Amino acid sequence: MNVIRAVGRLWLVPVTLVVWEIATRAAEQPFFPPPSATLARMGEMWLSGPAAHLLLTEQAMDDFGPSLARLFAGWTLAAVLGVAAGIAIGCSTRLSGYLDPLIHLGRAVPPPLLVPFFLALLKLSTPAQLTTIVFGIIWPILLNTVDGTRTVDRQHLETARIFGFSTVERLTRVIIPAAMPKIFAGLRLALSLALILLIIAEILAGSGGLGYRLLTAQRSYLYTDMWGCLVVLGLLGYLLNSAFLLLERRVLAWHTNARQTT
């Protein structure tokens, strides 16, 4: 049944490709190559390597390797910092009063505008790119964690106090599990933002990766290459979101079951 539903949701994809193919061939515009040409070029660039390398070419390694490493490194660092700071702020009214104005000021600054500043400060491209990603995506993680921590049921906290739970036990057995749904919501939003900021950072301050490949194709008027990069980015975003949703369902299965029983 799930397979049938999945297939039913994907019927629009081939229809869109057919319409896209017909429209681009009728328009005969070099700026909008047909999907068949784009897919052929994608295969030539990234999937024409030896079988021992899973058909991946050297160009695929050069494009995908650095980008995925920066993406996951920036997202992981932002997750650790955002969750830790969010729990601390959510548990402390005094700390929240001090830091709330700074948080709202920081989240209002567009991260791409800070890329030149990070480049001047950090010199190297990769640290500047990672800093851009972390600065841009930490806010949804931080704010969702703060909100999740603050909305823990007071009866649960009171019960933990009555049973003599230590501070660490209340944190690990009551507060964090109760805040997990909102923490995961922030992490999923941050993952999507991380991909966007990765491409912006690689375009503005990169020397490799998908963003730099996209910029090079644009400057060289290689429109098929450019559209290939855009298609790959769309697919990558979809796959990352789907994989994270699967992980979220497994990790928070207890929460879903608890809501259904109540």
TrEMBL record:
Membrane topology type: Multi-pass membrane protein
Q: Which domain of life is it from?
A: Bacteria
- Predominant location of this chain? membrane
The record's listing under InterPro entries reads:
MetI-like, MetI-like_sf
Where does it reside?
A: Cell membrane
Record domain ABC transmembrane type-1: where: 64-248
Enumerate the PROSITE patterns for this protein.
ABC_TM1 (PS50928)
Can the keyword Magnesium be found in this entry's annotation? no
Matching entries from Pfam families are given as: BPD_transp_1
Q: Which CDD domains match?
A: TM_PBP2
Where are the bilayer-spanning segments?
A: 71-90, 128-146, 183-205, 225-247
Q: Give the UniProt keywords, A-Z.
A: Cell membrane, Membrane, Transmembrane, Transmembrane helix, Transport
User: What family is reported?
Assistant: Belongs to the binding-protein-dependent transport system permease family.
Q: What is this protein called?
A: ABC transporter permease subunit
What is the organism field in this record? Answer: Microbispora bryophytorum subsp. camponoti
